[in-house]
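Data card: per-record layout.
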Amino acid sequence: MSEKAFIFDIKRDCSEDGPGIRTTVFFKGCPLSCNWCQNPEGKTHDVNLSFIPNLCKPQDCNVACVPVCEAHCLRFVDKLQVDFSACTRCNNCFTACPTKALKPVGYWISLDELMYQVCIDKPIFSASGGGVTLSGGEATQQMDFCSVFLQALKKHNIHTALETSGFFNYRRFQNLILPYLDIIYFDLKLINEEKAKQNTGQSNKLIIDNFIKLIQEQNVKVIPRIPLIPGVTDTEENLVGWASFLKQHNSYDAVLLPYNPLWIDKMAQFGLTPMYQHKKHMSQQDVEKCIYNFQSGM
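The structure for this 298-residue chain is written out next.
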């Protein structure tokens, strides 16, 4: 079993990734390619080059990053310009940049180091009823590591949760991960298979099959979540469809997640072009309409 994980962030004081105050570990790599992905840096299995223009202070460093770039993907013409597609990850610019305007996103971490990082927060978990949540990307892409990590957390009596797209090998999941989870937050995006393929890059058949198997297990709490993406998943057809499906399988704890457009700004940071454009938060009226449509299917 793997003793190292490829992650892109560890966030503390999280209140939306499970009960209590939690520390969330974001694993890199995802089998889906959702057009609205909230964590685009988690989709790839490689290190991402991140450039934050607001942090770039060429007057302070004399543009030290440009001459050390082996791929010549950095230029300075009035301001620093980055050719993301030419980057070979020589990593020289990261050490040359004093303000961290240029930085890598994605790194390997050992089990011991990760346990040290999360156990720092154990007193907060105990006081708030919180714990550790595995997120991503898709954590189940690194199932062997997740298994030993979750087992280590359980030895420390730490509450565990998983946020998942549901796209995984069920038999391996059942053996390696399921026994060590307290809660699973299971994303249900599009009930129509063709629309799922179009917007997530994958069929939804495996996801639906895995969800049905999980709720039949009855030894772990499974909470379905539907991200509300304007014009995509928030339609009456989709919401009523999911509501009818959940009712059929006696699952009544679904959570509707209002759309958050902050990911669009993230895309520019990684030199990516959004496949979906909607830059406004959902209004309360829009959210209430979604709730009404969903409840009408129940």
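Known properties of this structure: Residues 143-155 form the longest helix (13 residues). Residues 64 and 96 are 6 Å apart (CA to CA).

See the next section for split statistics.
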